[in-house]
Amino acid sequence: MILSVDIGTSSVKVALTDLEGSVVRWVSQPVETLTPEPGAAEHDLEVLYQALLRGMKSVVKGYESDVEAITFSCYLHGIALLNREKRAVTRVFTHLDTRAGRYQNTVENYGRRLYLRTGCPPLFVYPLVKLLWLRERLGLSGRYYVTFVKDYLIHRLTGLTVLDYGTASGTGLMNIHSLRWDDLALELAGVDESSLPELTEGASVVERVSIPELNLERVALVPGSFDGALQNIGYSAYGEEAVLNLGSTAVIRTLRSEVITDRDPRMRFFCYYAADRYRAIGAASNNGMSSLEWVRENILGGVDWSTLVDEVSKIRPCSDGVLVLPFIGGERFPYRDPYLRFTLLGPAVSHGRAHVARASLEGVAFILKAIVDALEENGVIVRTLHCGGGGCNIGSLVRVVADTCCKPVVVYGGDVARLASSIGAAAVAVRALGYSARLDAVKFDCVSRSRLDTVVPDVSTCSVYRECFSRFSEVLSSVSDIYRKLLC
Hints:
The chain has helices spanning 45-60, 104-108, 111-118, 127-138, 150-158, 165-169, 183-189, 227-235, 289-298, 309-313, 353-377, 395-405, 414-432, 445-449, 459-487; strands spanning 2-7, 11-17, 23-30, 42-43, 69-74, 80-82, 92-93, 145-147, 162-164, 174-175, 180-181, 198-200, 207-211, 216-226, 241-246, 250-256, 270-275, 278-285, 323-326, 342-345, 384-388, 409-412, 451-455. Helix 4 runs parallel beside helix 7 (183-189) and helix 11 crosses helix 12 (395-405).
């Protein structure tokens, strides 16, 4: 059996799966995001570790002798600093933390060079930029280590200090071609390799480890990858099959064997390493369910989205002229603008909450269409979207995304819908253990059996949304300039 750990921004999930990907047992431990000041979004490393340990103890009990491997999924872009004894001296600054936003301009002059080397545009979410902010904020001096969450948790469990290429490629510090820490990025960040974890292939057995707290002996440590890439791997979504993630962030991502970067100077999507020579190519908006939940709680009176289904369905596409720019958390992709804010345009006396609700769903969908367009302009064709995340349970949202992007959306149920990244991590472990010669050959029947529906786009509605998207893009361009003047 395989013990899969998924460190997320809102919870730590631990799942025990068999070699066919079926989930035998799983548990979720909630994780609090701390906001001690405006723009802050932090995790406590000790809290993460204790949640991890509790989850692993709960899931593995009674199966200790059956566990063959431990593998890891983790969110991207988190960074914290450790002292010489490798104890935390800061909390984790997550991707939702916007306090390093003004330092994005510091690396813009190197932006294209960095992007072509690392697959990461100059963005405030990346640890590269956060390190510039931390140097000024903390007046760093003396010896310190940099951790990206997963390597810290592995170190606490096993004493090893390793990080997979996939998670490392989301730092802005790793060269996507050589799979080594990048000289230019390290120079800009003011760190050297001795302050960073050792890099390794995530689809490999690093070492056989024993963990006395869990009564585990000589199990294979497989580092895995980041949660998004593992979602694709769990769904077996490669090439023209892409994953649509509707979690707190809104993401479209596909897996290709080659390095592909945006030819457009806007650098609208990323290229990260995934595992076993595959690259994850796509874009992640800060404004997925985080934005829609904010709208629900602060504008729609707290009503549940499921209650709004009938109301929303009665509103015509493009919400009768109501437009929402859903940027409650700034933006990283595809617009790369930390100053964008939530904006509601066009409401009149004749409009009600259903118009605002539908316009909010459409705003998220327009961001996703911009991602699809950017990918396809660079030859990354998307045929089908495989839906993951809590937003997949909102039928109105899935329908609007299908019609806006004009792509069929596959919806899953059961454990697969909740645990796609954990199942993907298990697939990586199956590859690492030698049960499959190729990662893309690992296809779990439990995943195909869990398909609930395929939402097929309506061609005529697709045409309407193409026109609405043009207006969305024009308004966004104007509003972006206004917010930059207000907030810079």
